[in-house]
């Protein structure tokens, strides 16, 4: 379902800029050994395909009766659902219902514009926060809660909480007011949660069978513990990216899908990779991109800039549409060569040309490919990238499931906003604001 071509990182093709096949194989074997040992309970995500979908399907069916579906979340709680929406139902709000809005920031203008469009009487609000303490999500929730109550609407009819199965603010509110809830499995963290109700409720609400998404994830999960060279492309990819960093100093990973519907996947992957691996001075910086668009904005620096990048292509073999380029203006050589070809053919050709150009300049690059975009392949690519990321973290010797670097900013926010128990952080903010600033 997901194929990996790693030829263009090998020394046989790009010389000293590449790595030896034997090194990749050795570290891939090590990655499998590490993940088989299951050193972290969060590795339960590999078996996420084995879940009860009854509640997701029931609430999704209810959601389809609304005119609007408003999702409140941030990070993995929003990026994963965005991928499902944009990949499997592009231009959804112009063609289908319920119309979907994903509010994943605290920009007041964005929320104002959403509220000017939706009719709250016909809106279902899905609040997603596993901890139930995410400041951005809770702030927008409080605004929606007050608006709905002010209109004398029944909160039970307009909210669904996706949260921790046992604890947290959202769980407590749900129990007090009888709000429908969906549980994020105990050992699944936010950025690895797209294949839980975090992403699956939206899928069901827009008519995408969640079981088909999980079937794709299962196909990948069944390969996660395989040792054979040709049986575990996730281990090969994790090994290659780790070695390109460790041995060659390639510390920027450009994720480059050649498909507009997968643009948001690039953003989702960037969060997954950065937050999982950026610890103890280790990890590589993910760089979301899009082909062919960024051939005209970024390719120059990939080709002739610093020797610190590796390109990871993602291609779609069949886009599902054969739009032929007409043979107009045949007398103009600058147009004649295009006529008779298709846009899909041009997309594939431009990707191939970029891949070849990078290879000819000894720039390491790899290519993932999927057959077509459908629920099963989207589930597969989600799980492929999650397993690869976890394996890379284990090779680096770090915990790929925590995010200690994020916590300080959260605590300072709590202090600045007056949350009890964070008085020390509040004092830190005050001292910082009193320091002399150099502003021009």
Largest sheet: 5 strands, mixed
Q: What is the N-to-C succession of helices and strands? A: EHHHEHHEHEHHEHEHHHEHEHEHHEHHH
Helix proportion: 40-55%
Major beta sheet, strand line-up: 1-10-9-7-8
Q: Roughly what is the average pLDDT, rounded to an integer?
A: 95
CATH class of the largest domain: Alpha Beta
Distance between the termini: 55 Å
Count, helices: 19
SS content category? alpha/beta
Quickly give the CATH architecture of the largest domain. Answer: 3-Layer(aba) Sandwich
**How many separate domains make up the residues?**
3
In the CATH hierarchy, the third-tier topology of the largest domain is known as Rossmann fold
Poorly predicted parts: none
Gross morphology is globular
Q: Please compute the radius of gyration using only Cα atoms.
A: 23 Å
DSSP strand content: 5-15%
Any key phrases for this structure?
440 residues, alpha/beta, Rossmann fold, 3 domains, five-stranded mixed β-sheet
Question: How would you portray this structure in words?
Answer:
The protein has 19 helices and ten strands. Strand 7, helix 13 (263-277) and strand 8 (285-288) form a beta-alpha-beta unit. It starts with a strand and ends in a 6-residue tail after the last helix. It has 440 residues and is an alpha/beta fold. The strands form two sheets. The protein has a five-stranded mixed beta sheet, sandwiched between helices. A five-stranded parallel beta sheet has the order 3-2-4-5-6, sandwiched between helices. Helix 2 crosses helix 12 (233-248), helix 4 (76-88) runs antiparallel to helix 13 (263-277) and helix 18 packs across helix 19. It has helices at residues 11-14, 21-36, 54-63, 76-88, 92-95, 108-117, 135-150, 155-158, 169-177, 197-205, 210-221, 233-248, 263-277, 299-304, 333-336, 343-360, 375-396, 404-416, 423-434; strands spanning 2-5, 68-72, 99-103, 123-128, 159-163, 180-183, 252-257, 285-288, 309-318, 365-372.
